[in-house]
Amino acid sequence: MTGTFTVRIGRLSRRVHTRALIVAVLLLLAATACVAASLMLGSRSLTLTEVLTALGPDARGPNRLVVVEWRAPRALAAGLFGACLGISGAIFQSLTRNPLGSPDIIGLNTGAYTGVVFVITVGGTGFLAYAAGAMIGGLGAAALVYLLAFRGGVRGFRLIIVGIAVSAMLTSVNTWFSVKADLGEALRAAVWGAGSLNAIQWPPVILASIVAGLLALALPVAGRRMRQLELGDETAVTHGVPVERSKILLSAVGVGFTALVTAAAGPIAFVALAAPQIARRLSGRPGSADLVGSALVGSVLLGGADLIAQHAVPDTPLPVGAVTVLLGGAYLVWLLLHEQRRR
Amino acid sequence: MPPASGFDSGATSGSRASFPAVPGPLALGRRRRLFWLTVAFGTLLLAIAASLAVGSAPLPLTTVWAALTRPDGSLDHLTVLDLRVPRTALAVLVGAALGLSGALIQALTRNPLADPGILGVNAGAGFAIVLGVALFGVTRIQQYLWLGFAGAVIAALVVYVIAARGPGGANPIRLTLVGVALSAVLSGASSTLALIDPQTFDRMRYWGAGSIADRPDGTIAAILPFIAAGLLLGLACARPLNALALGDDMARAVGARITFTRAAGMVAVTLLCGAATAAAGPIGFIGLMVPHAVRWLTGPDQRWVLPFSLILAPVLLLVADVIGRLVVWPAELQVGVVTALIGAPVLIALVRRAKAAAP
């Protein structure tokens, strides 16, 4: 195949697709631009120089407060969470061999929503209560799905059916709440459920970064296993890949990435679904999963969406999740519309 | 390139990986399938009877029968004739439409995760209604019906046109992706509009739950022609869909008209799901899961999957509706809420049994 070159460093060598590399660099630039714009824009508009000064070691005054304390956590969260969701989506779509695959199919986000609904019902407020509710609800649902699907081993197909069934039941509970609760509570749950970065601050961002960093350590192995499993289970076995263990590893990593985002910002929809598909089409290799590309696309997608969410409607910050689906969906439609007869 | 649709659970890889080959132990022979189809139909009749008899005023079946044959204008008879008969009829229509359209869409997209809403039908209906409510102050539920239907049809049409423009025509993966993408855009727009304006949110949360109670007069008459046409067209697709399951190339080789079948199937799904959603709001789970359960019973032959789905989906919807009237008696739960709560445990039990019996 043309369009590739090989990088050699000592005994290590790696084939690099030129187009994928260019796309990755451009995406990285776009993600950086999103972060920069997020730091600059707002009711107190700053120039790039002012932002850089404020970020410097001996900055003082209101600019430092605005940039470092208010805007930076949000800008970083958008970029980081987008990447997490992109990776998670790529893993699950590869694992299930289905473009609709996502951690959602094992009830993660629906369970998180149920958890938060419960927190709201018992009168809990504040970030920590919501995050705890989301975490317990989401992981609880995932554990329930695994438990119900377990019968002398967990088979992919049964896991998915049980996942859909449990999700559907939890969705019913959530709908029921939305209809029965008073308007204020229902609206609060709905805003959380759309996914929002409006109130994010440093502590959750730092915590999420640490968790994401730890999970990222597994990615080189995970990426290799994904490509091996895509050959088909039998072929993978003959190549000496521990199939079942790889699947468990991949699910755990994928669930981890989504769970940390959901706990911190609510279930931000569609990034996990769209990012891998967009990345495949941008890199010109629609057949293969691409962790780096998916992460970068996710990052740009969420970063851009958050800019719009903050500034599109004056004085009414939108939940970023609502914008993500709009933006990501429209872009995916456009990509599909212009897909060339390639390959 | 890996097979991008269908789940590969190890033993089922190969060119026909569209649906996992689970049916083995439960799949029945032709005579027993006919027997079970009769049983399913009997269950449907029982469910209809229950739906006529049960409610905030429980009535004995003799009273129901008297109301149907010799109505005397008493309160009980009016309850049956004016409230429960239309509601039950609507449940049967909506259930049949969702069940058949679910089976069709899973066959058309060769994706067992597809539900009829995947073509953008639910999102289109929802968006049209949100627009009506938020921008034009629509408040009457009669107007919801036509807005919803128009939105559903337009959304599905756009999905098909976009999917068909690409390389290889409207193949299953493109249909799925375009449908999901467009649904996302529409639902994102809907939720943005709803979250900006609490009043719109308030109206949409009730529509979004899905209900067949208290529909305005004329709902059934309005959707009946569309659902009837959709049912006929859908059932006529059974045989060509069997060919399509072989993959596009094989299907062409055995003489199936791929584009025609796909277009016909899409039209049927749009009519069925669009009409059902317009009348009852988005009722999930039935279209996704009834065909699944049915395939364990019948195997992948669409000539059996379609009729079984057609009969069993209304059974689930009716039972859910009856239970919804009982659990918080004398109040009611929306059928859209109850459906999954009773359907999902059955499904989990089925999937655990199916695999336990498998080698």
3D structure, described in words:
- The complex is a heterodimer of chains A (343) and B (359).
- Chain A is globular and about 65 Å long.
- In chain A, helix 1 runs antiparallel to helix 3, helix 3 runs antiparallel to helix 11 (243-265) and helix 12 (271-283) crosses helix 13.
- Chain A has one domain (77-342): ABC transporter involved in vitamin B12 uptake, BtuC (Orthogonal Bundle).
- A two-stranded antiparallel sheet of chain A has the order 1-2.
- Chain A has 343 residues and is mainly alpha-helical.
- Chain A has 14 helices and 2 strands; from the N terminus they run E-E-H-H-H-H-H-H-H-H-H-H-H-H-H-H.
- The N and C termini of chain A lie close together (11 Å).
- The mean pLDDT of chain A is 83.
- Chain A has helices at 18-40, 48-55, 61-96, 108-121, 127-149, 156-180, 183-194, 202-216, 219-229, 233-238, 243-265, 271-283, 291-311, 320-337; strands at residues 4-9, 12-17.
- In chain A, strand 1 and strand 2 (12-17) form a beta hairpin.
- Chain B is globular and about 65 Å long.
- With 359 residues, chain B is mainly alpha-helical.
- Chain B contains 14 helices and no strands.
- Chain B has helices spanning 30-53, 61-69, 75-109, 121-136, 141-165, 172-196, 198-209, 219-236, 238-244, 248-253, 258-280, 286-298, 302-327, 335-357.
- The longest helix of chain B is centred in the first third of the chain and has 35 residues, at 75-109.
- Helix content of chain B is 73%, strand content 0%.
Mean pLDDT across residues of chain A: 83
Strand content of chain B: under 5%
**CATH homologous superfamily identity of chain A:** ABC transporter involved in vitamin B12 uptake, BtuC
Strand count, sense and barrel status of the largest sheet of chain B are:
none
Number of helices of chain A: 14
Radius of gyration of chain B from CA coordinates: 21 Å
Number of strands of chain B: 0
Cα separation of the termini of chain A: 11 Å
Oligomer: heterodimer
Order of helices and strands of chain B: HHHHHHHHHHHHHH
CATH class of chain A: Mainly Alpha
Provide the gyration radius of chain A in Å. 21 Å
The chain-level structural class of chain B is mainly alpha
